[in-house]
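[Automated response] Your request has been received and processed.

Submitted sequence:
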Amino acid sequence: QVQVAESGGGSVQAGGSLKLSCKHSFSIHTPNTLGWYRERELVASITLAGSTEYTDSVKGRFTISRDIAKSTLYLQMNNLKPEDSATYYCNSVSAPSDWGQGTRVTVSS
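Generated structure:
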């Protein structure tokens, strides 16, 4: 059973930054694209090789990264906007598992 634990959310003002972390147990021996979801919308993904993709609304503001040795996925969020407010989840894009609890991000104007 794959497990994920998201953290790092909080309340910030518009223009602020947050860095989310996701400790997971996805296999490192299988090519696996991991992603960050805003509610159930995929906003950023990263392949095992490090290739990244972003939805248009976060391009230039969010950066996804992964530490394979630590089995941790990150999402650096800069220049946050009120519309970024949501619960953020991590999951495998290529082989989704059960959703974790997520981490709540609230951006005030």
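Summary generated for your ticket: The radius of gyration is 13 Å. The mean pLDDT is 94.
If you did not submit this request, please reply to this message.
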